[in-house]
Amino acid sequence: MTSTTSTLEPGQHRIKAHSDGAFVPVQTRSERFASTEVADFEAVTGAEAVWKLTPVRKLSALLDGPLDGSAHPLDARTGDGVTIEWVGRDDARIGSAGVPEDRGSANAWSGFEQALAITVAGEGREATVVRSELGTAARAAHTVITAAPQSTGIVILENRGSAVLAENVEIVVGDGAQLTVVSVQDWADDALHLASHFAQIGRDAKLKHVVVSFGGEVVRVNPSGHLTSEGGDVELLGLYFSDAGQHLEQQVYVDHDAPHTRSRVNYKGALQGEGARSVWIGDVLIRQSATGTDSYEQNRNLVLSDGTRADSIPNLEIETGDIAGAGHASATGRFDDEQLFYLQARGISEEEARRLVVKGFLAEIVQQIGAPELEERLLGAIEAELAAAQGA
After folding, report:
1. Model's pTM, two decimal places?
2. What DSSP string describes 116-182?
């Protein structure tokens, strides 16, 4: 690994200059400033590293304005072994998984009044929470998902309708537990959504975290997985389909801070229509304490028309040489001509061949969720996106 330096003004990005000059080390991922208080963050200009690819002017209500932090309408469906309740800001579970690292997340944290607490206990448990009546007032939300030690389950968070929402989602996976969390952004076209997901994975525990984004004008969901106990395992999966004028963003972070931990990051997206935009940033940090780490991250984007833009930036930071393996990959391109030729040579029309290629490309993520009913609905949503694209 090579180290670099950058000339910064004293105090810029909250980094102090050395006494012998204005040169300071480039900030590593683990040193990013964090606080639960929005006042601790400076106003967002769009020049900051974490905001420079985001249309911040559209998000001023969520970054700077007051937010309604009251309990919001939702439809919850649970089985035995899962509890869902509203709790106050003083609940001991709040703050157990992470702390905001940007102004939007901190504004949500400062503004929420009640948090939604979801607890999974036992084996094979499932819960679905649907939000569809948030309206157009700027809101703050906070959710805490806890998987008890040795438990197994899946929690599905579905978002629909209009919204102007900044939120934090905390996920705590107890020792030996196996939890799947799926966040589906099927918002209306005018929705604005900023979300930070923080996960702490216990000893010999596993988290599968899936982000699916179809709807919304600007949707930014940033998940982070912290592997602080030996044997922890995290899979961060993502699927997005960006249409004309739509901005879908995800900044992913995996922090390996214990021996013999494993992570896999796999995000796939398609873009169609003038001004369709996607942003994916993947940060993986393997600390000196994380010997025996096994990590890999990748992002693939399929461009379906002119006028689109996909930013894909994988980053890998390794502080120890004693690892099992680590790597990353990123690719953005158009249809595979060989695949299209193969299908057309077997009597399939070009339009149908393109549909099959895109569906197969994105279905790989859907099929890993492990909830058949949701998988079927998501595949139907992909079909609807493709039909709309072909009809445009």
Report:
1. 0.91
2. EEEEE-SSSEEEEEEE----SSEEEEEEEEEE-TT-EEEEEEEEEE--EEEEEEEEEE-TT-EEEEE
